[in-house]
Amino acid sequence: MTSSQSSVPEHYQDVLVVEDDPIIALGLEDTITDLGIAVIRVAANVASALAMIEERAPQFALLDVGLVREKSFAIAERLTTLGIPFAFSTGYGADRVPAAFADRPRLPKPCPTEALEAVLRRQA
After folding, report:
1. Which CATH number fits the domain that encloses residue 71?
2. Going along the chain, which residue ranges are E strands?
3. pTM passes above 0.85
4. Does 2 have pLDDT greater than 50?
5. Which residue segment(s) compose the domain that 78 sits in?
6. How far is Cα 116 from Cα 85, in angstroms, rounded to an integer?
7. Left (φ > 0), alpha (ψ -120 to 50) or beta: where does 54 sit?
């Protein structure tokens, strides 16, 4: 086990990644796996993500703000209602995230491993 794996909260064993770019999604899957998280589910759009959440709620979610022809804010609203921690992954500035989510962590794209690891530890 690497030092990164040991510092991620053990209760995060099911993470939902909402990302429409398949290459970025694969990179995030690899990064999250390297952090020792067992289950990573990927959705490329709002409908798929909401269906996955209803099927089995994740323990944490990482949301790309700008998906193809839609934004991920409906997912953020659902996660908030369920009390599930999440962070945004975005190349947009803070002004692109609604005020209701201003307190949520925002990670840059591409997302450095250390930044994601820090968010997971803080959200525990």
Report:
1. 3.40.50.2300
2. 14-18, 39-43, 60-64, 66-67, 70-71, 86-90, 106-108
3. yes
4. no
5. 3-123
6. 13
7. alpha
Share of the chain above pLDDT 70, in %: 90
- Tell me which residue of 90, 98, 93 sits closest to 115, measured CA to CA: 90
Q: How many domains does the chain fold into?
A: 1
Cβ(78)–Cβ(44) under 8 Å?
A: no
Structure tokens at 95: 């002004």
The model's pLDDT over 36-73, given as tens digits with 9 standing for 90+, comes to 998 999 999 999 999 999 999 999 999 999 999 999 99
Q: Which residues pair with 83 in a beta bridge?
A: none
State both tokens at 83: 């009390």
Mean pLDDT of the 12-27 span: 95
What CA–CA distance (Å, rounded) separates 55 from 59?
13
